[in-house]
């Protein structure tokens, strides 16, 4: 998470498309940073890259000696001005129902992600649990965002590496608890709520401007144009450097693109073997040059799903002697050069395992088999 305005980048671009001074400055800074790290510490981390679609000529280096795996260039991408591995971490499972009882374990899990090389942390205004029936008491609010803030503040990685971390949050959704003890979600994307909550998110995360702010959903009670108008106002006021949209269809992407122009950099939609983007929103992202960020990339943990949908992933995993979760994430990364995947984890082991998907190359035949086309 960086406060440096030189990293502000209004579009999702690869280096071949770099067209504005901020982008050039950012890529140059990043390359200089990497050269410095390589000089001073770990030359083995430096990889020469080919310029593949959606990735960059950039060279990424992990920051600790024990996690020194280099991320192949095809699995590095640019999002909201950050050139980072395309495998980040979702922090929802650390903040809502089922979250670790120990806050220290949650912080340790985020530290393990950063040590492994994760540079994208995904949170939301709504990642909290109401302690009593209703939408939450003041002491409930902000659990997830404070967790991310505190994990970054206490991480012992190199200080410059903290500026490489893209923190994304979301606005326009709340949690609920009913009288039977069941948790739920409730859209509230009235422009005034979206704006007030986004400003609160910035305060909670301890930044002047959010790196990336998503609208969490399309609230059916509010015209989508008005919801996008709220995002635009937040960009114009400098509260968010870049914006994204979530849980939406193709028509919404077109509306958002029309209203937000180059400030719109990402779509966060469900994608996994359980939900294969039936509306083909990934293709619309490609058409507009937007990043596609997969939510619940391993099928999620809140709702049950058919485990057999992972059978082929288990078979391929056996051949690679790794977890089927790692194969699933590698299959996702191979789909689109501007795809980012953000698995949750509730302990360090899971995120270390998942991050290794950035180094797993699947053959064309394996990808076709996993697509169900074999
Ligand atoms: N925009 C939206 O509306 C929206 C909606 C949902 C999620 N999201 C985002 O997407 C992120 C990920 O989605 P998700 O939390 O629904 O679930 P997910 O990433 O699909 O993961 C589901 C579960 O898989 C298990 N797991 C993860 N890595 C593993 C590994 N390497 N080996 C074995 N098991 C592993 C964990 O469960 P156990 O701890 O039980 O092992 C994890 O909670 C969220 O954190 C959030 O940031 C966004």
Automatic annotation (TrEMBL):
Record keywords, A-Z: Oxidoreductase
Superkingdom of the organism of origin: Bacteria
Pfam family, one: Aldo_ket_red
InterPro entries: AKR, Aldo-Keto_reductase, NAD(P)_OxRdtase_dom_sf, NADP_OxRdtase_dom
GO-annotated molecular function: oxidoreductase activity
GO cellular component, one term: cytoplasm
Residue ranges of domain NADP-dependent oxidoreductase in the record: 86-371
Keyword Oxidoreductase: yes
Keyword Oxidoreductase: yes
Name the record gives this protein: Aldo/keto reductase
């Amino acid at each position: 998470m960086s406060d440096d305005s030189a990293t502000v980048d209004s579009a999702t671009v690869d280096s071949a498309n770099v067209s504005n001074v901020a982008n050039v400055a950012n890529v140059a800074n990043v390359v200089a940073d990497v050269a410095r790290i390589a000089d001073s510490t770990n030359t083995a981390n430096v990889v020469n890259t080919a310029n593949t679609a959606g990735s960059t000529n950039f060279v990424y280096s992990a920051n600790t000696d024990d996690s020194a795996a280099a991320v192949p260039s095809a699995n590095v991408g640019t999002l909201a001005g950050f050139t980072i591995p395309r495998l980040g971490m979702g922090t929802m499972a650390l903040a809502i129902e089922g979250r670790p009882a120990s806050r220290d374990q949650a912080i340790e899990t985020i530290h393990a992600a950063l040590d492994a090389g994760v540079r994208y942390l995904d949170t939301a205004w709504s990642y909290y649990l109401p302690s009593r029936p209703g939408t939450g008491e003041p002491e409930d609010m902000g659990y997830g965002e404070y967790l991310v803030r505190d994990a970054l503040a206490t991480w012992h990685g190199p200080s410059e590496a903290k500026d490489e971390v893209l923190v994304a949050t979301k606005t326009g959704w709340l949690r609920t608890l009913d009288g039977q003890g069941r948790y739920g979600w409730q859209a509230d994307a009235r422009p005034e709520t979206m704006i007030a909550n986004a400003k609160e998110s910035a305060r909670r995360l301890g930044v002047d401007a959010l790196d990336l702010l998503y609208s969490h959903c399309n609230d059916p009670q509010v015209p989508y144009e008005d919801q996008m108008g709220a995002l635009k106002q937040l960009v114009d006021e400098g509260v968010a450097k870049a914006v994204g949209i979530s849980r939406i269809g193709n028509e919404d992407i077109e509306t958002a693109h029309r209203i937000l122009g180059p400030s719109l950099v990402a779509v966060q939609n469900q994608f996994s073997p359980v939900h294969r983007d039936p509306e083909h929103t990934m293709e619309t992202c490609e058409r507009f040059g937007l990043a596609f960020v997969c939510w619940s990339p391993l099928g999620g943990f809140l709702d049950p799903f058919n485990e057999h949908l992972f059978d082929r992933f288990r078979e391929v995993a056996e051949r690679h002697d790794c977890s089927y979760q790692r194969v699933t994430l590698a299959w996702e990364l191979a789909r689109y050069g501007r795809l980012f995947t953000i698995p949750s984890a509730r302990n360090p082991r899971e995120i270390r395992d998942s991050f290794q998907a950035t180094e797993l190359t699947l053959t064309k035949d394996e990808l076709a088999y996993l697509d169900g086309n074999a």
